[in-house]
Every structure is written in structure tokens, then in C-alpha cells.
Amino acid sequence: MQSSSMNVSDVVFEQLQDVIRIQQSVILRLNEKLSLQDKDMVRYDKYAGLVSELKEERHQHKQTRERLLTESEKLNFAIGEIQVLKGHLESERESFEKALHNERNRARNESAKNDKLISKCDRIKSIIMKREGILNEKENQIKELQTKLEKQRRTLKARLTELDIQRQQEEYMARVLQQRSRVEGAPGHSSPR
């Protein structure tokens, strides 16, 4: 009777050792996977830098839009002023030839300013379009980084769960082995011959 219980204990002990060996090989494979994933990880400081750059680009974009609005108002004012001047010159052409000549010179100057303002507005529009492209690119990069971070978070959570299961199994194995050693070392217990 005692011999058969020892045989069962030996079988259980061998099976536990097999389980431990399997767990160790699984752990080694998981560690290899984690080391491969470490290569794909995004550093937080890079992510934070991109977010900071995006904020700065948005700030500059806002300032450029405000400048465009101001310059557009100046342009509209100048265009309106030129229209008034041209209308005034046409109505008083015959009687105020000398005044007309002076006003035409002034209108030319205003047109030159107008052309400069239009050119400036075109440059600002070009800058805005370029910055909007940069902003879109930065937002796409941030979305990609957020996706990677979420994937890494899920992977690490799964790894922690696996490690917790492994710890529980190792504690269980330790208790079983400790109980077995107590049973074998108990007084009145004779080992089979």
C-alpha cells in the first residue's frame, strides 16, 4: 500500500517537473518576443516632442491666420480707397485737370501698395497651406504613435497577467514540494526499499 502511494507521489512529482520545464520554455519564448517588441517601441520623449511641435505649429498657424486677416482688411480698405479715388477722378476730370494728375499719381502709389499687399497675402496663404500640410502630417504621426502605445500597453498587460499566473503556479509547486518533503521527513514514515 505504501509502495503504491510512493509511486503515485513520484509520478505527480515528475509531472510537476515536466510542467515547470514547459513553463520555463514558454517564458523563454515570451522573453524573446518581448525583446523583439522592444525594438518597435516608441520612446515617450519622441512622442512628447512631436506633441510639442504640433502645439507650436498650431500656435504659429493661428498667428499667421490673424496676420492674414489683418492684411486682408488692409487690402480691402486699400481696394475700397482706390475705388473711391478712381470714381472721384472720373467725375471731376474736365474741371480739375491738375488735381486729376495728382490723384492719378496717388492712385498709382496705392495700386503699388495694393499689389504688394496682394503679393504678401499670397505668400501668407502659401505658408498657411504648407503649415496645414505639416499639421496634418504631425497629427497622423501622433495617431500612429498612439496606436503603437496602445498595442504596447495591451502586450505589457498580457505579459503581466502571464507572469502573475506563472508566479501563482510556482508558489503552488513550492507548497506541493514543501508538503511532500514534510511527509517524507515525518517520524514513523519509512521509505520503500
Automatic annotation (TrEMBL):
Pfam families: SPATA24. GO terms for cellular component: cytoplasm; nucleus. GO terms for molecular function: DNA binding. The keyword Lipid biosynthesis does not apply. Keywords: Coiled coil. Residues 51-166 form a coiled coil. This is Uncharacterized protein.
